[in-house]
Design goal:
CATH class of one domain: Alpha Beta
Low-confidence stretches: none
Number of helices: 8
Largest sheet: 4 strands, mixed
CATH architecture of one domain: 3-Layer(aba) Sandwich
Radius of gyration: 18 Å
CATH topology of one domain: Glutaredoxin
Order of helices and strands: EHEEHHEHHHHEEH
Mean pLDDT: 91
Strand content: 5-15%
Number of strands: 6
Strand order of the largest sheet: 2-1-5-6
Structural class: alpha+beta
């Protein structure tokens, strides 16, 4: 099968299920390469700002979740669920080290500008670094200085990205994106999958999208 598979991923940096979903997607893409080595993969990441109302500096992480879930016990149970799902995906999250629930508008703009500069491998390195900084190091992704330092570590020149790193928390322009729940995947602009689904389910959706494209081409 010689074809191209486009994968559009809608995500937010503050959502642990998005990082879990990323790992599941990577596993599914590995399986796709084995089963369909001739298929070219085209991956696009789209930022979805889940909490656009947050102030530019963010809010205290622990208090945010206590208010959202109602009690410290509810927070503990939710975090245990997330950490178990992360462990199943080969991830280790340090939620206890997160002090700030950030406004992610600036982080998303950074990734958008970095993506426009080209280089899928370098873009993915930055995406991984941003996730890692938040879920392992507890860094504040609303801080432009923190964001710029990570971009430079990935090889992006300061002068190419500094202009997009404002801390005014202007809402992210989503360009009419269809997703509000994340992670959200669209394969070849036709097959949609919501949530951090297991790799086999994602692989099934990929193959369905490829099959539909093949059938459509043969009927023309």
């Amino acid at each position: 099968m010689s074809a191209t598979l486009r994968i559009d991923v809608f995500f937010d940096f503050i959502c642990p299920w998005c990082l879990i979903g990323k790992r599941h997607l990577e596993r599914a893409l590995d399986l796709l390469r084995i089963r369909h080595p001739d298929v070219q993969q085209e991956l696009a990441w789209h930022g979805v700002q889940l909490l656009p109302h947050l102030p530019p500096q963010g809010v205290p992480f622990a208090e945010f979740y206590r208010q959202r879930l109602g009690s410290a016990e509810a927070v503990r149970m939710r975090q245990a669920q997330v950490q178990q799902a992360a462990a199943d995906a080969g991830l280790s999250l340090d939620l206890s080290g997160i002090d700030v629930m950030p406004n992610t508008a600036t982080a998303h703009r950074l990734l958008q500008h970095a993506s426009a500069l080209g280089g899928a491998a370098r873009r993915n390195a930055l995406l991984e670094k941003l996730f890692d900084a938040y879920f392992h190091d507890g860094k504040n992704l609303a801080d432009p200085a923190v964001l710029l330092a990570m971009a430079q570590e990935c090889g992006y020149p300061q002068d190419a990205l500094a202009d997009c790193l404002s801390a005014d928390a202007t809402p992210l322009d989503d360009n009419g994106m269809p997703a509000r729940g994340v992670p959200y995947f669209i394969f070849n602009r036709r097959i949609e999958v919501s949530g951090a689904q297991p790799p086999q389910l994602l692989l099934q959706a990929m193959e369905q999208a490829l099959e539909q494209d093949t059938n459509r081409s043969s009927s023309l």
